Amino acid sequence: MALTVSAPIRIVAILGLLLAVGFGGAMKFMGGGSDSVSSVVPSQNSAVIRARSVAGAATARAKNPAAQTTAASTTAAPKTAAKTQPASTTPATSTTTATTTPAPVIKPTRAAKQLTAGLAAGLPLPLAQSLSLNPTVVVALYNPNSAVDGIAFAEARAGAALAGAGFVGLNVLSQAQIGKLTAQLGLLADPAVLVFTRPAKVAVQLKGFADKETVAQAAYNAGRAS
User: Fold this and answer.
1) 3-state class of 169 per DSSP?
2) For the segment 131-171, what is each residue's pLDDT rounded down to a tens digit?
3) HEC assignment per residue over 47-63
4) What is each CA distance from 207 to 1, 178, 188, 204, in whole angstroms?
5) Which residues, in sequence order, are bridge partners of residue 142?
6) How far apart are CA 192 and CA 178, in angstroms?
7) What is the pLDDT of residues 36-78, one digit of tens each?
8) 123-225: which CATH number, 3.40.50.1820, 3.40.50.800, 3.20.20.70, 3.40.30.10?
């Protein structure tokens, strides 16, 4: 039984044959003959390799967009860090306004006032100092070369202690100690006892030798009268 082939199938078969013959001829023409035909390997073509690389990268980005964003951020981070300036470690200068405390005003004490008054009155410094501390002062005038004056000196000091008064011994041979009193009272004998009260008053004069009881009584009376 004869095989009957439809017209459409015959047309498709003819077209396939023509395409096969044309392709073979083209390959033969490009290769220079059947003996020198060389196969073209698509996998070794540089254009194909680049196309595959770009396609692979695009596929990776499409599958995992988050990984691509993280990689881009990691690449840009060093540049940003390089531009960041380190914080200044120089300590801030603090301005402190110093408060000036005024110097305290020192008022003269009563003793200082009395000392000033005694010196202004022309008293020797030892006597003025004693009067600044004691309202009544016994002064013994003596010659250091006289034995009697030495005894009188001791009695005058003991009498001042009995009366609770101050005591000062002045050497009649010392112009620095006796000069101011001589200018005020004239020539002074020795031994002698003078009783002073504040501010610079001669209350009693005892010429010659005087025992301690006499000196104490004179100092006591002068203190009560002042």
Assistant:
1) strand
2) 999 999 999 999 999 999 999 999 999 999 999 999 999 99
3) HHHHHHHHHHHHHHHHH
4) 194, 16, 9, 10
5) 171
6) 13
7) 444 445 555 565 566 566 556 656 665 665 555 555 555 544 4
8) 3.40.30.10
